[in-house]
Design brief:
Blueprint lengths: L2 H19 L18 H20 L10 H4 L24 H19 L7 H30 L23 E4 L2 E5 L17 E5 L2 E4 L5 H9 L11 H10 L7 E2 L12 E4 L2 E4 L11 H10 L7 H9 L1 H4 L9 E7 L25 E5 L15 E3 L8 E2 L3 E3 L1
Parallel strand pairs: 8-11
Antiparallel strand pairs: 1-4, 2-3, 4-12, 5-6, 6-7, 8-9, 9-10
């Protein structure tokens, strides 16, 4: 990539973050609705913190930090870069003001453009960190939307983020089972492959995958509603033990953001779904979203099937052109039955960014694909997203699989 195109891409990515934040008021952008989410203002500051601390300070001679206190306030989890403000308390950061965070972004942007125009400062290491920073900001763009939706769902009036906002939705195809033979498969990304990938996608390795079948489409809202109406949430036989405990503890009766017909916030006494464009009638053909891993696994059990492993998903994705796989990307992240673990031979990135993925490889489930909120060009077949099995506030759904 030429320096000019990298400079333009940097500007475009940073501007898109501001466009996503624009429908939210200053008050909206300061609030944290639960420990797993972050305020929009924090996302805006943290993505700038990344470039300041991991790119500008090491590679731009004479760079002056915007505010020394931001190193503490907006560090996420990088132990190597010092102490940080507790994650569950990010919503207490009423100061700095949003205007100061925006000034921080402008300060960082000006310095980054200075760096990007100075070829002598752009070593291979610097370019790699800039590329990582852009992909990191794209991750936070998706989080900005999912966190904003959770925040607005806590408001008694269920206000829309943007009444004209259009989320991706596809008409569901007739369910068909696609068969894949057993065999030794090459999975993951080669370390020296061209194009960007996170370190947890490598190295490429061989794995024997048993023969399996996988659904050509995602599970729809209509499919999942049948599970609810059949008493799926009350049938303990369908649930993993921890999932059953979550159902009882949290009173789960439907996916997050669904409104049952008897909910006073659901107009016309029909099933409704709250989204970034407000409360809308449930679309039976749209893919079900905002499910925990436990709910996805329970639905699969009810359907007499199972969730695919991440390796089965990747095999199917590699051959999707010849096997009529639909909606691999751009609608919902898809839960798999695979725990988030390192590939054989995995080596974390070097420096502070070695903390980016590797240290989270325990107690999480892998999701594959991407959602409608995933930025353009930020998805690929080898991408390994991961969340705790109880997480529901992401745009997470499922695709079924079964043994041959």
């Amino acid at each position: 990539m030429s320096l000019n195109s990298l400079s333009a891409r940097y500007a475009a990515v940073r501007q898109h973050t501001l466009q996503l934040a624009a429908p939210l008021s200053a008050e909206d952008q300061c609030v944290q609705s639960m420990p797993d989410t972050s305020p929009t203002k924090w996302h805006l500051a943290h993505t700038s913190w990344f470039f300041e601390n991991l790119v500008l300070l090491p590679f731009l001679s004479g760079y002056q930090v915007f505010d020394a206190s931001f190193a503490y306030l907006f560090n996420s989890y990088y132990e190597a870069l010092g102490p940080r403000h507790p994650r569950p308390q990010r919503g207490l950061l009423t100061r700095p003001a949003l205007s100061q965070v925006m000034a921080f972004r402008e300060h960082v942007n000006a310095a980054m453009q200075q760096l990007l125009l100075n070829e002598s400062k752009l070593s291979g290491e610097a370019l790699a960190l800039i590329e990582l920073g852009l992909n990191h900001e794209q991750q936070h763009q998706e989080l900005l939307l999912t966190d904003a939706l959770h925040l607005l769902s806590c408001h008694p009036l269920l206000p829309a983020y943007d009444g004209s906002f259009q989320a991706g939705a596809a008409v569901q195809k007739e369910l068909q089972w696609l068969s894949f033979d057993e065999g030794l498969r090459t999975l993951g990304r080669a370390v020296d492959a061209t194009g960007f990938a996170f370190d947890n996608e490598s190295p490429a390795h061989q794995r024997f995958v048993q023969g399996f079948q996988i659904a050509n489409r995602l599970v729809s809202c209509g499919d999942y509603l049948a599970f609810i109406l059949d008493g799926g949430y009350a049938n303990a036989d369908l649930w993993l033990s921890e999932g059953r405990a979550q159902v009882l503890q949290n009173g789960w009766q439907c996916p997050m953001y669904w409104l049952a017909p008897d909910d006073p916030r659901a107009p016309s006494g029909q099933w409704q779904v709250f989204g970034l464009n407000g409360v809308k009638p449930l679309d039976a053909l749209a893919p079900v979203a905002n499910l925990s891993f436990y709910e996805a696994a329970a639905y699969a059990q009810w359907a007499g099937t199972r969730l695919p492993t991440e390796f089965e998903w990747e095999v199917a994705a590699q051959l999707s052109n010849t096997h009529a796989m639909h909606d691999l990307h751009g609608l919902v992240w898809q839960w798999t039955r695979s725990a988030y673990e390192p590939y054989p031979g995995f080596v974390p990135a070097t420096g502070a960014v070695r903390e980016y993925n590797g240290k989270f490889m325990v107690g999480q489930q892998v999701l594959r694909g991407s959602s409608w909120a995933t930025p353009t060009h930020h998805s690929r077949h080898t991408y390994r997203n991961f969340f705790p099995p109880s997480a529901r506030w992401q745009f997470t759904g499922l695709r079924l699989a079964k043994d041959i």
